[in-house]
Amino acid sequence: MADLQVELNATAEAGELDPPSARPPEPPPISEPETVHEPAPEPGPEPGPAPAQDPLGRARALLRRHPVADGFSGLPWALRGLPWYDLELGDSAVDADVPRLREGGVGAQFWSVHVPDGITGDRVLGATLEQLDLVKHVVAGHSDGLRLARSASEVADARNCGRIAVLTGPARADAIGDSLATLRALHALGLFSLTLSGTSWAGPQGLTPFGEEVVREMNRIGVLAELSGASEATVHRVLAISRAPALFTRSGARALRDAPANLPDDLLAAVGAAKGLCLVPLAAEQTGSSIREVADHLDHVRRIAGPESVGLSGTYDTSAAHPEGLADTSRHPHLIAELIERDWPEADLARLTWGNVQRVLRGVDFTARATREREGRRQAAS
């Protein structure tokens, strides 16, 4: 597997091709021929402008400049059940491999370390640790195409080196139990985001005082708060107390489809006001069975939350059924082409695919640094 190669095309220098002495003598002047008056040609239609590039071609060109940062992949759990796989050459047993990620214009992907709901209690932490270890093993074994990243700068570095950045997370919140030390340990092992739902401290009634401490500690160490499926009380409280942007990795618009993880308009507006990010899933149950229905959700979230608060979540290699035409990660250009036909400005498309996720990653980095600096100043003053 060859590394990325850059071809340098030499350009010829401008100037005279031959010295004056090497040029042939100029021919003698030719007498003007007798003028012949030809009839004027019949007027015809004026030539029109050159044909514009088709929407799919424009979509592929845009994704070369602004690749997709895909907010949710279930690939680690899918790989656990395979006796053998090769993501570099391509593997039909999964929805995402390096060739199809490149064909789909994907530049970064969040690899979920969620474990199934049937795993409970102390087994959640053990299964999450196994998932973290598997992610490291898979990326190390496919280093020509993949690279682990834990910050905005590392994501950009991976892209500049021709690799697809892999960010680890989200994980289930009950993996940390009631322990901030476990949260810090998981972060040290590579965990980048945590879903704040389904625990005694983040449930239907919102965050307990300990839950608020979890959010503050996540801000301090640089773990992203993920809220898809969280209760409305939890969502509102996290948006109020978190200094870093919050993320919804699998949420469409409830006004268009009443699915559990989809957000009502008041929450979408609150996400936009808090500079959070709603990643719309390519999942038929949540956003419809066609590309047009998915685009309707993107239109709606963009209108209510704002163009800086909408992104894409493939939800590939999960149990979700995908809309027609979006069967695997290679199909992202077809969705972008649909948005081009809807006259989305290029600036908004660039935010949707790449810019908004980068903004959130930079926000998490900045908050963690600023929090640690404040702590250092307080300790120095005491």
Q: First CA to last CA: what distance?
A: 56 Å
- Going by CATH, the homologous superfamily would be Metal-dependent hydrolases
Tell me the fraction of residues in β-strands, as a range: 5-15%
Seen as an oligomer or otherwise, the chain set is single chain
- What is the 3D form? globular
What is the strand tally? 12
CATH class: Alpha Beta
Q: What proportion of the residues is helical, as a percent range?
A: 40-55%
Main sheet attributes: strand count, strand direction, barrel closure: 4 strands, parallel
> SS-based structural class?
alpha/beta
Alpha carbon gyration radius? 27 Å
Q: How do the strands of the widest beta sheet line up side by side? A: 1-2-4-3
Mean pLDDT: 89
InterPro entries: Metal_Hydrolase, Pept_M19
Region (Disordered): 1-55
Organism: Streptomyces rectiviolaceus
Pfam families: Peptidase_M19
Topology:
Blueprint: H1 55-65, E1 68-73, H2 75-80, H3 98-103, E2 106-111, H4 122-141, E3 146-148, H5 152-160, E4 164-168, E5 171-172, H6 180-188, E6 193-195, E7 202-203, E8 206-207, H7 209-221, E9 224-226, H8 232-241, E10 247-248, H9 265-273, E11 277-281, H10 284-287, H11 291-305, E12 310-313, H12 332-341, H13 346-381
Parallel strand pairs: 1-2, 2-4, 3-4, 5-6, 6-9, 10-11, 11-12
Antiparallel strand pairs: 7-8
Question: What does this entry look like structurally?
Answer:
- By secondary structure, this protein is an alpha/beta fold.
- 41% of the residues lie in helices and 11% in strands.
- The chain has a single domain (68-375), classed as Alpha-Beta Barrel (TIM Barrel), CATH 3.20.20.
- Helix 9 (265-273) links the parallel strand 10 and strand 11.
- Helix 1 crosses helix 12, helix 6 packs parallel to helix 7 (209-221) and helix 7 (209-221) crosses helix 13.
- It is globular and about 65 Å long.
- Residues 1-42 have low confidence and may be disordered.
